[in-house]
Design brief:
Elements (H helix, E strand, L loop, with lengths): L1 E3 L13 E7 L5 E8 L6 E6 L2 E6 L5 H10 L1 H10 L15 E4 L2 E9 L4 E4 L4 E5 L5 H23 L13 E5 L6 E3 L4 E5 L7 H13 L8 H10 L3 H23 L2
Length: 260
């Protein structure tokens, strides 16, 4: 995600609330960019995910300003688009997939028959028990429940070692699919984490947890904040680079495996 703030001098020619514009990349490829106006936004913000490219505009941003911002960052947009995974977009279905991602590995699926639909990890891979009348949509719901259970188990292992160093514990903790962020801490100390983190390597997942917990100490990304992160996770730059490189793939794969 890229963002940019230009305080004075917003031109008066404004784009419509929502529209789609085209951008020609350096290699000549043309991509569609969805423009979304947000009254709460304070800066121009670009996001590239499995759904495409989106530009969020503050209320006063003009067409000229937005087009200039897109053009100046077209190399970044092209690089992010190139990172998107080139995998099958077929939704997760019974018998179609042979493996499932979990904690940075591709684990083989063992398809079983039984009375109740269940997805569970075993020592060698993942067992999926299928009742005769279970649908593919129910399978994806079971996969989501499985990933939620595994992610909560990881957090339950990591969280106790960090809480003694904090002024308070998070008020609550939620996991769900996020389109661009990896996590956030609300004003009321509610912690939100991206469920797709459990698909990737555990060290990256734990780093994101540490990052958000450190916002209980500093509600910004100041030097003091990063010093707190560094004390708890010295290799945080490696995990950030990993998420920059693999993040779109993780988010896209979670959507494929769990979308209704």
């Amino acid at each position: 995600m890229l963002s940019w703030l230009r305080a004075p001098g917003f031109e008066q020619i404004l784009p419509p609330e929502d529209c789609e514009r085209t951008l020609v990349l350096a290699n000549g490829e043309t991509v569609a960019v969805r423009w979304v106006r947000d009254a709460r936004a304070r800066r121009l913000r670009l996001i590239v995910n499995e759904r495409g490219v989106r530009l969020t505009l503050p209320r006063g941003a003009s067409i000229r300003l937005a087009e200039t911002f897109m053009f100046e960052h077209r190399d970044w947009i092209g690089a992010q688009l190139a990172k998107r995974p080139k995998i099958s977009r077929e939704p997760f279905a019974f018998g179609r997939d042979l493996e499932l991602p979990l904690r940075g590995e591709r684990r083989p699926i063992r398809w079983l028959e039984g009375r109740y639909l269940k997805v569970a990890a075993n020592d060698d891979g993942i067992d999926i028990t299928r009742p005769a009348r279970a649908s593919d949509a129910q399978l994806r719901a079971a996969a989501k429940a499985f990933y939620l259970q595994e992610a909560r188990a990881d957090i339950g292992t990591w969280l106790p070692k960090y809480l003694p160093q904090l002024p308070s514990a998070p008020a609550n903790l939620r996991l769900r699919a996020l389109s661009s962020l990896w996590g956030s801490l609300s004003a009321s100390d509610g912690l939100l984490l991206d469920l797709s983190l459990v698909l990737g390597r555990p060290s990256a997942f734990e780093y994101v947890l540490v990052h958000e917990l450190c916002h209980l100490l500093h509600r910004n990304h100041s030097r003091r904040f990063w010093r707190e992160v560094e004390k708890r996770w010295p290799q945080w730059r490696e995990e950030r680079d990993y998420l920059h490189g693999e993040g779109l793939g993780l988010k896209s794969e979670l959507r494929r495996l769990t979308a209704k």
